[in-house]
From TrEMBL:
Record flagged with keyword Oxidoreductase: yes
Protein name in UniProt: Catalase
CC per GO annotation: cytoplasm
The organism of origin for this protein: Enterococcus saccharolyticus subsp. saccharolyticus ATCC 43076
GO molecular function terms noted in the UniProt entry: catalase activity; heme binding; metal ion binding
Pfam family, one: Catalase
Cofactor: heme
Active site: 54, 127
GO aspect biological process, one term: hydrogen peroxide catabolic process
Record InterPro entries: Catalase, Catalase_3, Catalase_AS, Catalase_clade1/3, Catalase_core, Catalase_haem_BS, Catalase_immune_responsive, Catalase_sf
Domain of life: Bacteria
Length: 480
């Protein structure tokens, strides 16, 4: 028997991979052909459920290198000294499209980075925009329902999209970005990335700083005009995936410089409705970007399914020195992402090579589907009287006071100022394209009351903004 022989999943040699086991020349096929049954059963299960959001994407391995000393602000080990390098895996994606959708759709792009640090895995799970459409996780399922297919027609539904947006005025800032030139990046390599939420850094002296992450592309920002993007979508729906793969394969390794905005703890609490509202940005004039390090993607995956499809990210994957903020959308994501992975990939998805940390894992989680390492100890509980794993008091998160009555609260109702500021910052030609893109989408809405409601939002952000959209639709802004 040769060494390079075909086996079953249990390692047994396969004698015939061309012909099923049958009762005689003409069959029927025997149920005892376990190799046939195994092949067919596995084939039926070769596709895990696609991600509810961020289904279409591409990824690559790389390295993060610290270029500036930020140890005064965080005790995170992978940021502890200049020159320190940490392996990373980064996944880019569209948000609303299915697995087979086109890369060049007008949609935010996911920008997720897994740092394989010496104190566990740390994930930054953001987008290519610094903000989002909603600011409370309770609205997320409803929002995504409007972006997906109509449950009756199975078609995309512009009425649902704009109905939700017009009834959620906090979405206006993100709509303005989405419908601008930035709504369709030229490639994954030519877009910025953001952590979007506010997080908390803690240093070795237990001093706390609010932090926001900005990955700035070193390739320069480039975008696609709508007509070009539509043309590419028809000719090569995998355009961005192909571009990233070939760039890395040809040695044109893309890189991003990570910067942060740091806000003193008490100062941040004084503007908490701005700081923790993910539909708003924090002034870079008041809190300028501070360089942290460079991320370079230098190696393509060996297998797309094993690495890009099965990789799992969660904003709840923290390491000592980095903690959550009270941002209500972030708080919901801390649960939702891990729960999505347990459903989609399995309870033990953290043991897959692409997700497994580079440091030893010692916990009392046992059993479950696809468990690869269950340990050898009979002690699977804590506290215990034996020399088994113990809690580590030094890893406790920092403290700060909270107070208030239980209730359902919203952030402030300033939905318009930052959207208006953004519109006025755009050059005239970009303003025109922004309006054209909005008109092209909003004109598909068949309910005049939805159009009017949304027009009023644009008008309140900037009168010229609202009037331009109204003119494009051939409408008059009512109740202004």
């Amino acid at each position: 028997m040769t060494k390079n022989y075909l086996t079953t999943a249990q390692g047994a040699p396969v004698a015939d991979n061309q012909n099923s086991l049958t009762a005689g020349q003409n069959g029927p096929v025997l149920i005892q052909d376990v190799h046939l049954l195994e092949k067919l059963a596995h084939f039926n299960r070769e596709r895990v459920p696609e991600r509810v959001v961020h289904a279409k994407g591409a990824g690559a391995h790389g390295v993060f290198k610290v270029t500036n000393d930020v140890s005064a602000y965080t005790k995170a080990d992978f940021l502890s000294e200049i020159g320190k390098e940490t392996p990373v895996f980064t996944r880019f994606s569209t948000v609303a499209g299915e697995l087979g959708s086109a890369d060049t759709l007008r949609d935010p792009r996911g920008f997720a980075v897994k740092f394989y640090t010496e104190t566990g895995n740390y994930d930054i799970v953001g987008n290519n925009t610094p903000i989002f459409f909603i600011r409370d996780a309770i609205k997320f399922p409803d929002f995504i329902h409007t972006q997906k297919r109509d449950p009756r027609t199975h078609l995309k539904n512009p009425n649902a999209v704009w109905d939700f947006w017009s009834l959620s005025p906090e979405s206006l800032h993100q709509i303005t970005i989405l419908m601008s030139d930035r709504g369709i990046p030229a490639t994954y390599r030519h877009m910025h990335g953001y952590g979007s939420h506010t997080f908390l850094w803690v240093n070795n002296n237990d001093e706390q700083f609010w932090v926001k992450y900005h990955f700035r592309t070193n390739q320069g920002v480039k975008n696609l005009l709508a007509d070009v993007a539509t043309k590419i979508a028809g000719e090569n729906p995998d355009y961005h995936t192909e571009d990233l793969y070939h760039a890395i394969e040809n040695g044109d390794t893309p890189s991003w410089t990570l910067h942060v905005q740091l806000i003193p703890f008490e100062e941040g609490l004084e503007m908490k409705e701005l700081l923790f509202d993910v539909t708003k940005t924090i002034s870079q004039k008041k809190y300028p970007l501070i360089e942290v390090g460079t991320m370079t993607l230098n190696r393509n995956p060996e297998n797309y399914f094993a690495e890009v499809e099965q990789v799992t990210f969660s904003p709840g994957n923290f390491v000592p020195g980095i903690e959550a903020s009270p941002d209500k959308l972030l708080q919901g994501r801390l649960f939702a992402y891990g729960d999505a992975h347990r459903y989609r990939v399995g309870a033990n998805s953290s043991q897959l090579p692409i997700n497994a940390p580079k440091v030893a894992v010692r916990n009392n989680q046992k059993d479950g589907a696809m468990r690869m390492d269950n340990g050898t100890s009979s002690v699977n509980y804590e506290p215990n009287s034996f020399n088994s794993v113990k809690e580590q008091a030094a890893a406790k998160i920092s403290r700060y006071a909270i107070e208030g009555s239980i209730g359902n609260y919203t952030y402030d109702d300033n939905y318009y100022s930052q959207a208006g500021d953004l519109y006025r910052l755009l050059p005239i030609d970009e303003q025109q394209r922004l309006v054209e893109n909005i008109v092209a989408s909003l004109s598909q809405v068949t309910y005049p009351e939805i159009q009017q409601r949304q027009l009023l939002h644009f008008y309140q952000a900037d009168e010229a903004y609202g009037q331009a959209v109204a003119d494009g639709l051939g409408l008059t802004v009512k109740n202004k």
